[in-house]
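thought: user wants a sequence for this fold. calling inverse folding tool.
action: design(structure=
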């Protein structure tokens, strides 16, 4: 197939677009910003004309942003390659890469990490180390802080990031279009900075504090002593503590129809101190405020719901995990499989909620494994965040946690919803 593009027209459109966007793309730079040293294009399709040299990608630097021409001749993973000034490490602790994006077309957005394992000195630093979709939808025609959760087994350095603004099939793409990338940061926050209208507070949480004696140190459910019955706020020394605390990576476990008594600092929560967004619409309606005691409906669907507890001026946001008594375990992957320790296939296998699962990793001939990736929660194929509230967690269990014969355990804290287990296989 012969490829051709009118680069004169493309260049005119690019310059026009740069002038049109102008200073509106400017974004503040923080201490966790990811600085870049060079840019280019990338496609994971090895026969892509942009990787074989048949075509040259179109990317240029503007004032405070990078403009990128999404070409219809690339694959669905064709994107803007950004070579970082300094590498960052993929660790088992989840981090979030925030990328400010502006694009005219709806569609999924992906981030690809290029780098190398430290122990593999001969490995190219442009080896693909992760593919991940944004946890939030990038709305067309407006600047959006796209959030990408990243983690790994450790000892993996990322040298370049590839922003794929339109991770959809190009079969129906009639023409190229421009996208723009602004500031990139990496931090511990899963919340998009452009979605702060979800669950609004009556104050700005930045630098807001309360007296230490008036702070919330823990929230929980009366009578619960097991994991999932209490959320403890990290200890902060000093006479004043943060007024607001985001504890959305943790959750309190309940079942439909349960009579729940919430506690704050070990004591029954007071009047009008509990809010639960049962319809997951990003707001607490008048009917979703409670006096610390809640009778859960029998018909409430399983899932995670935003839970807010207030005590005086202090506020904590966490999640309520409305769960079944048994969960379903699946396995995905290629070049091997993960099975139950007794040999049963993980194909819609039932397991007890909150109990560890013994498994065995079985690589195909010629392969070994470096760990197991586990996704646990609800609606595992949908966006991770619903109005900023996580619906599942992703975690990599390293090879060192398994025996020589591949036997290991999915820990109880990862069996708090449906589970997908994927072996990370690699050639010997």
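)
observation: tool returned 428 residues.
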């Amino acid at each position: 197939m012969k490829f051709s593009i009118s680069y004169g027209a493309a260049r005119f459109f690019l310059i026009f677009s740069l002038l049109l966007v102008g200073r509106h793309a400017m974004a503040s730079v923080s201490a966790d910003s990811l600085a870049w040293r060079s840019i280019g294009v990338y496609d994971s399709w090895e026969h892509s004309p942009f990787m074989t040299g048949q075509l040259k990608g179109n990317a240029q630097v503007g004032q405070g942003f990078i403009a990128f021409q999404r070409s219809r001749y690339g694959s669905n993973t064709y994107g803007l390659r950004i070579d970082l000034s300094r590498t960052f490490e993929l660790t088992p602790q989840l981090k979030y890469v925030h990328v400010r994006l502006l694009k005219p077309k709806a569609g999924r957005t992906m981030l690809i990490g290029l780098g190398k394992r430290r122990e593999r000195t001969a490995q190219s630093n442009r080896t693909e180390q992760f593919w991940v979709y944004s946890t939030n939808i990038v709305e067309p025609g407006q600047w959006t802080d796209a959030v990408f959760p990243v983690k790994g087994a450790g000892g993996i350095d990322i040298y370049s990031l590839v922003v794929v603004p339109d991770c959809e099939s190009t079969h129906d793409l009639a023409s190229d279009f421009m996208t723009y990338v602004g500031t990139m940061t990496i931090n511990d926050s899963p919340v998009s900075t452009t979605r702060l209208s979800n669950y609004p507070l009556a104050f700005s949480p930045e630098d807001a504090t309360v007296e230490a004696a008036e702070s919330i140190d823990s929230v929980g459910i009366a009578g619960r002593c097991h994991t999932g019955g209490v959320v403890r706020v990290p200890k902060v020394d000093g006479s004043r503590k943060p007024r607001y605390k985001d504890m959305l990576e943790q959750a309190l476990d309940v079942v439909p129809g349960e009579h729940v008594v919430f506690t704050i600092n070990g004591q029954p929560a007071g009047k009008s101190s509990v809010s639960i967004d049962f319809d997951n619409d990003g707001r607490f309606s008048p009917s979703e405020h409670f006096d610390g005691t809640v009778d859960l409906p029998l018909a409430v669907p399983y899932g995670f719901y935003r839970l807010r507890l207030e005590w005086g001026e202090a506020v904590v946001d966490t999640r309520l995990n409305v769960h079944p008594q048994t969960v379903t375990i699946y396995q995905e992957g290629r070049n091997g499989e993960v099975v139950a320790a007794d040999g049963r296939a993980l194909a819609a296998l039932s397991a007890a909620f909150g109990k560890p699962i013994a498994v065995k990793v079985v690589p195909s001939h010629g392969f070994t494994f470096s760990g197991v990736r586990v996704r646990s929660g609800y609606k595992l194929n949908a966006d991770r965040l619903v109005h900023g509230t996580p619906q599942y967690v992703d975690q990599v269990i390293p090879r060192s946690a398994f025996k020589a014969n591949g036997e290991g355990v999915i820990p109880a804290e990862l069996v708090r919803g449906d589970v997908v287990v994927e072996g990370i296989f690699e050639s010997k």
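thought: summarizing for user.
answer: Here is the designed sequence. The longest strand covers residues 79-90.
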